[in-house]
TrEMBL record:
This is YqeY-like protein. Signal peptide: none annotated. Transmembrane segments: none annotated. InterPro entries: Asn/Gln_tRNA_amidoTrase-B-like, GatB_Yqey_C_2, YqeY/Aim41, YqeY/Aim41_N. GO terms for molecular function: carbon-nitrogen ligase activity, with glutamine as amido-N-donor. Pfam families: YqeY (PF09424). It comes from Enterococcus italicus (strain DSM 15952 / CCUG 50447 / LMG 22039 / TP 1.5).
Length: 148
């Protein structure tokens, strides 16, 4: 079942339950997917859908950080609940240990030994963790490993 079908089913469920918040988030996700589908002119494959979901999650995490800095608790709670809803459609997230393992393998594979080779390592790591880990977290792990 495609993500779009899943979103449609969940949208119907949210409508019946009168869950406005979930309905709003699902509509935003669905709109993003449909806009991308129109933009590229064909149905999206699983990887493209995952990329769009990851982008939506990143936007919400960035918003959360900004709202926390600004002390906007009313918006912080709203964004946290949106993140919870979006997480339901993403694959299970990697643990920190799993990220460290993937980064270690990438460093070994690329032969990177300094922070100057950060981009090389990230180029190997990111396709493996796409949608399964927060990019900022991966970034921090790679920097930490290359600083040693």
């Amino acid at each position: 079942m495609s993500l779009l079908n899943t979103l449609n089913d969940d949208m119907k469920t949210a409508m019946k339950a009168k869950d406005k918040e979930t309905l709003t988030v699902i509509r935003m996700l669905k709109a993003s997917l449909q806009n991308e589908k129109i933009k590229i002119g064909r149905d999206l494959n699983d990887e493209e859908e995952l990329t769009i979901l990851a982008r939506e999650m990143k936007q919400r995490r960035d918003s959360l950080t900004e709202f926390e800095k600004a002390g906007r608790e009313d918006l912080v709670e709203k964004v946290k609940s949106e993140i919870t809803i979006v997480e339901q459609y993403l694959p299970e997230q990697l643990t920190l240990e799993e990220i460290h393992s993937i980064v270690a393998q990438a460093i070994e594979k690329t032969g990177a030994s300094s922070v100057k080779e950060f981009g090389k390592v990230m180029g190997v790591v990111m396709p493996q963790v796409k949608g399964k880990a927060d990019g900022n977290q991966v970034n921090a792990v790679v920097k930490e490993r290359l600083d040693k």
